[in-house]
Amino acid sequence: MDGIDLIEALKAGDPGALDQFYRNYAEQVLSWAIRLGGPRLDPEDLAHEVFAIAFKRISTFRGESAISTWLFAITRNVVANARRKASFWRFVGLGEDTDNLPARGEMADEQLRLLRRRRWVQRALERMKTSQREVLVLMDMEERSAPEVGQMLGIPPGTVYSRLHYARQAFAKALQQEKLIAESRRGAAVGRT
């Protein structure tokens, strides 16, 4: 069961539909929560909130857009609200601070490099404007089309391409800054030993 049939089953109160809906979209919603929320917000909490809102508002879904578009809009709002409400940022999901860890011991050098890169990417995404981050995530990471992204964000495809151009520039700059910050931290850590 998928699409409109699934929505209708949810509206009718079918408990099996609830599980199916979650299985169909949980990975996608979690991915959006991670990429839009950044490493300092708990993506699993955000995803659970998205589904709680979606289930509560399922009767309002009219089928004028794809289910993923509707869920993305909810995710986007949940992430924005979480960012506004945060009195302090918690670092969640990426483990311990890897910038200052020596590249030896149980963790292989390659694994450590990948962890560092992942952290740089998350922090670089966090530095970007929300409008740019959303387009970059949907176009480059989710590999969606400009018309689809435009529909999800409520903007024309031409605006999607324009934002993507500036988003890629902003991402490259933010990523370079993260790399420099990490390198200076490692240099300072080496100097203390």
Percent of residues in helices comes to over 70%
Tally of DSSP β-strands: 0
Largest sheet geometry: none
How many structural domains are formed by the residues? 2
Give the count of helical stretches. Answer: 8
Q: Could you tell me the radius of gyration in angstroms? A: 19 Å
In sequence order, what are the helices and strands, one letter per element? HHHHHHHH
State the name of the first-level CATH class of the largest domain: Mainly Alpha
Mean pLDDT: 82
Spans of at least 5 consecutive residues whose pLDDT stays below 50 are 87-103
Here the CATH topology of the largest domain equals Rna Polymerase Sigma Factor, Chain: A
| Beta-strand proportion | under 5%
Please report the distance between the alpha carbons of the first and last residues: 60 Å
CATH homologous superfamily assignment of the largest domain: RNA polymerase sigma factor, region 2, helix turn helix motif
**CATH architecture identity of the largest domain:** Orthogonal Bundle
Q: Structural class, please?
A: mainly alpha
Question: How would you sum up the global shape?
Answer: globular
